[in-house]
Amino acid sequence: MTLTLLGLLGTGLVDPRSAVVHADDPGLTRGDGCFEGCRVRTDGSGRSQVDKLDAHLARMRRSASALQLPFDADEWRVLVDKALAACVTPGEWAMKLLLTRGPAGGTPVGLLTVSALPAEYPRQRRDGIAVATLDRGTAADAFARAPWLLGGVKALSYAVNMAAQREAVRRGAEDVIFVSADGFVLEAPTSSVVWAVGRALFTTPLDGTGILGGTTQQLLFERAAAAGWRTEAARARVADLFAADSLWLVGSVRGPVDVVRIDGVVRARDTARTAEVRTLCGFGRQ
Amino acid sequence: MTLTLLGLLGTGLVDPRSAVVHADDPGLTRGDGCFEGCRVRTDGSGRSQVDKLDAHLARMRRSASALQLPFDADEWRVLVDKALAACVTPGEWAMKLLLTRGPAGGTPVGLLTVSALPAEYPRQRRDGIAVATLDRGTAADAFARAPWLLGGVKALSYAVNMAAQREAVRRGAEDVIFVSADGFVLEAPTSSVVWAVGRALFTTPLDGTGILGGTTQQLLFERAAAAGWRTEAARARVADLFAADSLWLVGSVRGPVDVVRIDGVVRARDTARTAEVRTLCGFGRQ
């Protein structure tokens, strides 16, 4: 499977089969760069739009700043517009924006890719997902006074996140909920953890935990608050997730997916509440 | 500054100006791959050799295995031999071996690069280096039962290591000694920590700490033991580093460098002991 579209910041779209990164770019050799993943929707007449681009560019600016990389949102908007204009086949697409430090003596490199949704997403959205809980090794306040640990930075250094997802598969699950060394719920490798008790929505607090603030979780909480839900950032333990009425992993491209099993134990689903949350997140009915 | 040499596993040497990595390779997008950094020496007649290649390939095999990536040492040796044959300008060189998961639907990608030594290495070898101690966020036993945290795996996810070195510069130092959340000495972002008390050499234990076993530290300990030193893996605190007779950061390309300042406090140097350690590590006199 090759990319559908490939863009270079400052250049425009190029052949999606091209190799574009140099072997001495610290984005590759050190995972020293940052990224965003966004959902693109293309309607029946071939017009494309990207979900909450402002929020993604704002977060990428914060990531770049933490890594001491330059970031020009307007330049990125030009590249995104070119990609959207070329994205004409109706459906959903995954768009990534990547910023690397660039090869030795060079300048930072910005890349945009558009590709098909992962094949498992439609099933996971419909049937929910089984997760394993895994220790992240850090205490829930480890990041509070340690900016070099890059808490909240979406860096190109996800090897542990990918290894954790492989461990989940080994345990008969498909995804992970990371737990702090002192037993508090953190996040999933590529999504936020959100749970509901009655008409209250909860997620992990940012400060000190090092988790990434989710753009879809934030959109959900804004819209849910406007719709009369109570919303709260709360420290929770795995037992609280079992006790919750609903539990979702919430990401920008996959949207919210029901967690139907934790460490092999089945959780009840509430399909009406999940449908409501999906709508609030900007995703349609399954 | 461009690369001196560039090689592709299974192909051979290519134009060192080539971009060779695809924008959807998880080695780039997720830091999902592994690497080694080795020293190459080229003598006056243009013959090159690489230091302790067996140890580097053995460690890379372990890294690849932890990431569920295939690894064929013989194939790497073919590529290394081609690079050594083409490396004819007398001096020292930095050789990197990189293995990425490869683009979606593709196969893993192996890369070899040869480049000049970092400009600061000769000065650091001669004058020593100032370090800052920084909290790594994990307890000294955090990795013991959590293989998904990739302790001891040299993955392409070094963003925290690079951010820590930038923090060190902000603090008036040049490198970092990471300390566990519970106050034990770990490692430097790209080297091992070794200290001496009398005729005893110490370094951080591997189990549970998550540190990378250093190939140069291991060579040093083997040769030092044969030369009558006592060698030991020991849990230590920063106060123990101040109390030690000598303290070095030990890496494959830079070799051992004296730590002459910790968090702004000057340490005494013992140039005779450092010269002995340099020789044991396979590095000449400064």
Automatic annotation (TrEMBL), chains A, B:
| Gene3D superfamilies (UniProt xref) | 3.30.470.10, D-amino Acid Aminotransferase, subunit A, domain 2 (3.20.10.10)
The protein's GO terms of the molecular function aspect are: transaminase activity
Q: Which family does it belong to?
A: Belongs to the class-IV pyridoxal-phosphate-dependent aminotransferase family.
Q: Where is the signal peptide?
A: none
Q: Which UniProt keywords apply?
A: Aminotransferase, Transferase
Q: What is this protein called?
A: Aminotransferase class IV
Coiled-coil stretches are none
Superkingdom of the source species: Bacteria
Source taxonomy: Bacteria, Bacillati, Actinomycetota, Actinomycetes, Jatrophihabitantales
- InterPro entries in alphabetical order: Aminotrans_IV, Aminotransferase-like, BCAT-like_C, BCAT-like_N, Class-IV_PLP-Dep_Aminotrnsfr
